[in-house]
């Protein structure tokens, strides 16, 4: 739980400082070299696309749909990119908007729109509300949550346990909703790590409190088996929307592959938290996934 430092006496603050300093020195003594950047491509991923740096050698090759793609395109995205994603999404090219896909960009744009115009179920733009509250599990309180904090939202930290948030989600949302002004929305990222019970609690937030809940997460793990939380969410969800992505071969990616120290692996625990090895995940199409899986087991024989 978070320590309320403002309420501590000078002597208690000195004891707390000594205890925290000792824990910090113990961690520093481990000599860890951790890169906590989320979504940062590994060397193998960068090497896989390095040929793109030399494949174009003539300015004529940079022309598409009457545009020089070395310069700015157009607001809704390059027509060629819109055609590509229209085929993958099953829609018309004019219905596609090609923008930045970085998680920070997507979240910032969403929160900014909520403050200026409100969201689908908002009674008013968030900027006109007396107070906006945001539930954020910790550790998971990262720079993404800093966006909501920078807009003035009241951040309600939820401690984490090995099995998920230490809370009754329904009661937590009820408590966070001020009188006459309930939360506009509950947003859950990395929802595959929820337990089935927590997924049911989120469902009851929509039933008992009439507050919309939006969950983002993986459907299945690196061995194509469902996460308990994801499976229960899929069973309960009012609506399901697939966030599509592309394999390096160009096909639609539906499989999540695990790489350890640069090699694909298809055995191990469902959740891997490893401080010694380089663990990465790659989105792949079924064809590429099973090709790598066959190669993995062939090498084991």
What can you tell me about this protein's structure?
The chain is of the alpha+beta class and 301 residues long. It contains nine helices and twelve strands. It has helices at residues 10-29, 43-48, 79-89, 103-116, 143-150, 169-176, 196-208, 228-236, 286-300, and strands at 63-64, 67-68, 133-138, 154-161, 164-165, 186-188, 213-215, 245-246, 252-253, 255-260, 263-265, 279-284. The strands form five sheets. The chain has a three-stranded mixed β-sheet with strand order 3-4-5, with helices on one face. Strands 11-10-12 form a three-stranded antiparallel β-sheet. Helix 6 (169-176) crosses helix 7 (196-208). The protein starts with 9 loop residues before the first helix and ends with a helix. The relative contact order is 0.07. The mean pLDDT is 82.
> Between the first and last Cα atoms, what is the distance in angstroms?
49 Å
Query: How helical, in percent, are the residues?
Result: 25-40%
DSSP summary, beta strand count: 12
How many H/I helical runs? 9
Low-confidence stretches: none
Question: How are helices and strands ordered from N to C?
Answer: HHEEHHEHEEHEHEHEEEEEH
The class by helix and strand makeup works out as alpha+beta
Strand order of the largest sheet: 3-4-5
Rg of Cα set: 23 Å
Q: Based on CA inertia axes, which overall geometry fits?
A: globular
Oligomer: single chain
Sheet having the most strands: 3 strands, mixed
- Beta-strand percentage range: 5-15%
Mean pLDDT, to the nearest integer, reads 82
């Amino acid at each position: 739980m978070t320590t309320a430092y403002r309420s501590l006496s000078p002597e208690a603050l000195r004891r707390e400082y000594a205890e925290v300093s000792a824990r910090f020195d113990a961690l520093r003594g481990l000599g860890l070299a951790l890169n906590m950047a989320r979504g940062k491509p590994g060397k193998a991923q960068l090497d896989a696309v390095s040929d793109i740096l030399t494949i174009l050698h003539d300015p004529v090759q940079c022309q598409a749909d009457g545009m020089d793609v070395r310069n700015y395109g157009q607001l809704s995205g390059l027509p060629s990119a819109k055609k590509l994603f229209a085929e993958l999404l099953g829609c018309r090219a004019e219905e596609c908007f090609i923008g930045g896909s970085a998680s920070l960009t997507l979240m910032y744009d969403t929160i900014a729109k909520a403050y200026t115009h409100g969201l689908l179920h908002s009674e008013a733009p968030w900027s006109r509300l007396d107070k906006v509250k945001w539930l954020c599990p910790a550790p998971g309180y990262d720079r993404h949550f800093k966006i909501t904090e920078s807009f003035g939202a009241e951040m309600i930290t939820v401690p984490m346990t090995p099995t998920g948030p230490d809370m009754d989600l329904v009661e937590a949302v009820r408590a966070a909703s001020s009188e006459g002004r309930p939360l506009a929305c509950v947003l859950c990222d990395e929802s595959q790590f929820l337990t089935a019970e927590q997924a049911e609690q989120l469902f009851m937030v929509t039933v008992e409190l009439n507050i919309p809940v939006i969950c983002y997460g993986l459907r299945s793990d690196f061995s194509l088996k469902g996460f308990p939380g994801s499976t229960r969410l899929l069973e309960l969800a009012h609506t399901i929307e697939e966030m599509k992505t592309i394999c390096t071969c160009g096909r639609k990616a539906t499989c999540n592959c695990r790489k350890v120290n640069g090699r694909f692996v298809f055995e191990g625990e469902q959740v891997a938290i490893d401080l010694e090895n380089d663990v990465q995940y790659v989105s792949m199409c079924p064809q590429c996934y099973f090709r790598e899986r066959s190669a993995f087991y062939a090498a084991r024989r």
